[in-house]
Write a structure and sequence with these properties.
about 35% helix; four-stranded antiparallel sheet
């Protein structure tokens, strides 16, 4: 797919056929000296599917993201992209491979218009050097079209992006990554700081990205956000994989139980019951969750 300005061209790449494996992680690990941050982690990312990576703080989610995004190199295992073993030395190499990351703390300029942020760092110019100038109309119209294609109803791309809600800013970042050629979209806890309504908005656009054929890696600690949009679920705890499941292989209750600690939570519930009494409200709640 090609987008053209008067004398400028921005080229994006069509995603592969739905169901095609784009990224495969095989027993990936990361060591920092004697410290093991990640160990024996395996999963796949396919076009037109959402792979959810779940875990609490310290589970290894950030390390996993950084390996896929090219910020860190893995020390163990194999990273396969388009059928070839690879290792990214920097984020640019990951971007060139079509892997884009939208971090929780978005890199936006709040006082700049939405369209300026959409093309931030990749501005389109027209004219002849040294008299080239920004092709403002092209960038505005492209921003409107791309947001509309993602189902984002934004009244005015001239408004400062800082006036948008957190969910809307996340959605603009998703649309931007899609436009600039992402085949794999890594979303770092996009709903963590959002309320129920705005979280629903982001989940809607994650599903929209999947419909457009992207492979989405959705990092979250909330199984209730992951399950409605996820096709595959990989759980991390203390740097190790607790399993990699297709949606048909695990229920929301099972996913929630594994996230909560399962046997560990049940053991804690019994301990609370002994020390506080079986009738205590906290003990009853813990037992119900276990």
């Amino acid at each position: 797919m090609s987008k053209k300005s008067t004398e400028s061209t921005v080229t994006t790449t069509e995603p592969p056929a739905r169901g095609t494996t784009i990224v495969e992680v095989q027993d990936i690990g990361k060591r920092y000296g004697n410290i093991i941050a990640l160990s024996d982690v395996s999963t796949t990312v396919k076009a037109g599917e959402v792979t959810c990576v779940l875990g609490d703080n310290g589970a290894g989610k950030s390390t996993f993201i950084k390996i896929l995004a090219g910020a860190h190199q893995h020390t163990d295992g194999t990273l396969v992209v388009d059928g070839e073993s690879t290792s990214f030395s920097n984020p640019r190499q990951a971007l060139d491979a079509g892997i884009a990351t939208v971090y929780q703390d978005l890199a936006v300029v709040p006082l700049m218009p939405v369209w300026r942020n959409f093309f931030l760092g990749s501005e389109v110019r027209k004219g002849v050097a040294p008299f080239k100038k920004l092709d403002v109309e092209f960038m505005k119209s492209t921003t409107r079209d791309e947001l509309a294609a993602m189902g984002i109803d934004l009244r005015d791309v001239e408004q400062p992006i800082g006036t948008l809600s957190g969910g809307e800013r996340q959605c603009v970042a998703i649309a931007r990554a899609v436009y600039f050629g992402a085949r794999v979209l890594i979303l770092d806890e996009p709903t963590a700081a959002l309320g129920v309504k705005q979280s629903g908005v982001v989940l809607k656009y994650i599903a929209k990205a999947r419909e457009r054929g992207l492979g989405v890696v959705f990092i979250t600690h909330n199984p209730h956000h992951a399950y409605p949009v996820g096709d595959r679920f990989m759980l991390l705890r203390r740097g190790k994989s607790m399993g990699d499941y297709a949606k048909s292989e695990i229920t929301l209750d099972e996913l929630t139980s594994m996230m909560a600690g399962g046997a560990e939570l049940e053991s804690l519930a019994h301990e609370l019951a002994r020390t506080m009494g079986d009738d205590s409200e906290i003990a009853q709640e813990m037992a119900a969750e276990a």
